[in-house]
Structures are given as C-alpha cells and as structure tokens.
Predict the structure.
Amino acid sequence: MLGKEDGRMVQENISGETVDSQADDSQRQTKFQELEKEVEEIRTALQLSNISCASGNESDSSALSRMQLLNNITQTCAETQARLENVSASEAAAQDKYRDLLSMVSSGWKHHGGGFYFFSKETKSWQEAEQACASYGAHLTSVTLRQEMEYLTGETNGEAFYIGLTDQWQEGNWTWVDGTEFNSQVSFWAPGQPDNWHKAPGQREDCVQIRFKNLNAWIDVSCTHNLKWVCKRVFS
Ligand SMILES: [Ca+2]
C-alpha cells in the first residue's frame, strides 16, 4: 500500500516533478527575460540619471559662475557708489568753501599770500575780537613771515590792531591763538617790548597789538582794551 502508494506518489511525484520542471523552466526563462528587461530598464534609467546629473552639474556650474559675476557686479556697483558719494562730498565741500569765500570777500576780507585777512573797523577786547574771528572760522592773525608782517603794517598804517599773540595763560610764554608755534626768531617787538607794564596793581599786559608803520611794531597791552583787530583764515 505504502509502496504502491509510494510508487504512485513517486510516479506522481516524478510525473509531477517532470511537469513542474518544465513549467519552472518556462517560468524561469520568462522571469529571466523579465529580469533582463528590468536590468536594461535600470541601466537605461541610470544612463539617463547620469546624463541628468551631468546636465545638473553643468547647470550648477553655470549658476555658480552667474552668481560670482553677480557678486562682482554688485561689488563694482558698491565701489562706484562710494566713489560717487566721495565726489559728491568733495563737490559739497568745494561749494561750501566757495560760499565761505564769497561771504568773506563781500564782508571786506582781503587775500594775501596763502591767507585771507580781515581788518576790523570797530573795536573790541582781545577775547571778543578772537570770538569775532571765530565766527568766520578764523582766528586773530599769527605772523610767521617778514613779508606777512610787511603786509600787515601796510594795511594797519600805524593804527592799533590786535593780533593773535598772547601770554595770558603763562606770563612770558607767548603763544599764537591759532595754534601756530611761536618762533622768537621771527618776532617784531617794538624797542623795549614786551614789558608787561603794570599800569595799576593787578593789571598785566598779556595781549599784543600792531602799533606802528615800521616793521618792529608789536607792543604788549592789556587784553581788556578795546582795539581794532586783524583776523586771518588760511584755506588748506
Ligand atoms: Ca604779559
């Protein structure tokens, strides 16, 4: 029974296996063909993907180049804008200077050498005179050259005018109020001056006037005297 059964089963099995084997071969071939087709499709897809990636890289490279170009253009524009602003600032400064000069000339300022000078008609104390000069961006004049002193004595013509020399902050230490360093080798004291003469107790002579027509025309006087004055403004 078993044997028969085994035989039948075997036969059946053998028969079945034979049938199954043929079916499997056909199925395997079909699957193999399907796999080949899938592989081919994957290969094709990979090729397309590579092309796409290559194309994408090319686009990235092109985009990077365009970005760099845009950055360069932006930087150039910023630099150009900065230069234009500097030019505008220079033009504005030149216009301000032109307006200043026009205002000074119309107010009676005179040009000599490298500076503009103002010879007042009214009188003030030394400090008030310096403040009047400062309202024009100037100071009471310094004197640094013989030619400059010759010009000043020619304009003042023997009248008393304050200049910007003082020792009011330290007796005997003469300084120019415009910041020019005082050079004792280029000074134009009148004979016997400065004498810091005490007209009354507590009074001193700490400011300087041009008093004579000749070159040695400086005299120290009290800073509280009301005198005419000379301003000087030098444009750089
Ligand atoms: Ca003095």
